[in-house]
Amino acid sequence: MQQVKRGIFFLLLQFIQWSLLFICLYRIVPVPLTPLHIIRLFEERKDDKETRLEKDWVAIDEMSPNMPLAVVTSEDPKFFEHFGFDFEQIKNSLERNIEKGKKLRGASTITQQTAKNLFLWPKRSWLRKGIEVYFTLTIETFWNKKRILEVYLNIIEMGDGIYGAEAAAQEYFSKSCENLSKNEAALIAAVLPNPRKWSPAKPTAYIRKKQQRIVRYMKYVDMEALNNN
Asked: Which CATH number is correct for 32-227, 3.90.550.60, 2.40.10.10, 1.10.3810.10, 4.10.520.10?
């Protein structure tokens, strides 16, 4: 029994050491590849689809201000106020799920989504959720908000084989994300909850309404904190 405990302790210690190493590394260097990139490539090969991995790292200062503003407005309006978790949104989400009697959209913050996409696998489980909590708190501790948003905007899935704002801008609007308008950035942000179901290339009426709502509320989100990081 003692050997088992020592083994578990050793594995836990190794996990913490390696995770901290990568978190500190990704604080300053671009992320080359994520588990989701690899999983999607294997899924495409398994389904005999053409493999595709479009990504191009761009510093957040070189993006149109509309892009970070649109995703914060859409995905996490309290991004600059919380420490990785929006407990009010979690409470509201749970109440909606109970009221409707089924799982609706969750309340994941941008930091949680960054942690999940950077280190974890897409399939939901209590184990993944627990590890996600650890990575979320660790990222919030070691990175500033600007870096969290920069990594998020470069690794997030924005379509089949399309990752990050630059690849999305090139794919859907044939331009750099540096030149995205409010409407274009809002359209990309509108599909983020499920970019494999919806696409900026063929927006549904629902996505168009959401795009308009994002544009309307963008003026109420204060991004000044981004410049102070």
From this structure: 1.10.3810.10
